[in-house]
Amino acid sequence: MNTEGISINTSASQTLALPKLLVSVRDVSEAEAALAGGADWIDLKEPQAGSLGAVCPETARAVVKAVANRGLVSAALGELTDWTTSKARDLLGIPEIQVVKLGLSDCDQQSDWPERWQAASHEVARFGKQLVAVVYADNRQARSPAPQDIVREAIKNAFQYLLIDTFDKHSGPLLSHLSPQVLAEILRTADRANLQSVVAGGLTTTMLAQLPQNSLDVVAVRGGVCVRGRSGVVQQQLVEQFSAAIQARWQASPDKATS
Predict the structure, then answer these.
(1) What angle do CA 182, 139, 115 make, to 5 degrees?
(2) Cα–Cα separations (whole angstroms), residue 107 to 111, 237, 247
(3) Which DSSP letter does residue 71 get?
(4) Fewer Cβ atoms within 10 Å of its own Cβ: the N or the C terminal residue of the chain?
(5) What domain count does the chain have?
(6) Distances in Å between the alpha carbon of 197 and those of 60, 92, 166, 208, 217?
(7) SS3 of residue 202 by DSSP
């Protein structure tokens, strides 16, 4: 999509920034399809290994070599509860991966999760990377801390990115767990704290109309650009269609209720 610095003029008095498009990929061929289709950001993730399943280091190295300087590269690293013994830690040694994600499932009853999360963030930073603050919209199913608690800790610890996603990919898309109004309020809070917001969770082109237009920096997708869902294969044509749908949505009249 190549949208850095691009904005959409909707009226003489208001300009909307066009969100970037993140595509989660599992291998080199999917990364090439995503970039050819207009993705701005390549995210390494193995969909068969859960919401934030990690790819193996060999796959990650091959993908970052193929991407070169054509887009930002991030990687899913699993969940904080598994972090100390996770093989995904090996991905920290790949310098081309700039941003990493750790979920907070099964942390809601662990009073020390903020300290453990901060320690993981500091470890990630020693490798020159940014840790994304992950909010699970279906936090009850995920047994993760409440969204407002995660956002508060992310702001306190000067995180750069906030991802709002779903944990259980069989329990419905993002907006079946968060209303557009609640999502918009989270995005506004993040924006005021200079947190870049990434929205994901089973998104399709038809769902874009329900997303707030303001304070949204990145739209993240996998299943919506795959044949046969998130376990399928990323297709260039579907990425192109998603990119075009984002542009069409942000060219539409500005929201009044949710933006």
Answers:
(1) 105
(2) 8, 39, 37
(3) S
(4) C
(5) 1
(6) 24, 22, 15, 15, 5
(7) coil
Instruction: Provide the residue range defining the domain that includes 136.
Output: 16-251
Instruction: Report the alpha-carbon distance of residue 236 to residue 255 in Å, rounded.
Output: 30
Tell me the helix, strand and coil percentages in the chain, rounded to 5: 40, 20, 40
* Residue 2 falls inside a structural domain: no
Q: What is the pLDDT along the chain (259 residues), one digit of tens a residue?
A: 444 444 444 443 355 789 999 999 999 999 999 999 999 999 999 999 989 999 999 999 999 999 998 999 999 999 999 999 999 999 999 999 999 999 999 999 999 999 999 999 999 999 999 999 999 999 999 999 999 999 999 999 999 999 999 999 988 999 999 999 999 999 999 999 999 999 999 999 999 999 999 999 999 999 999 998 888 999 999 999 999 999 999 987 666 545 5
Domain-located, residue 194: yes
Collapsing DSSP states into helix, strand and coil, what is residue 67? helix
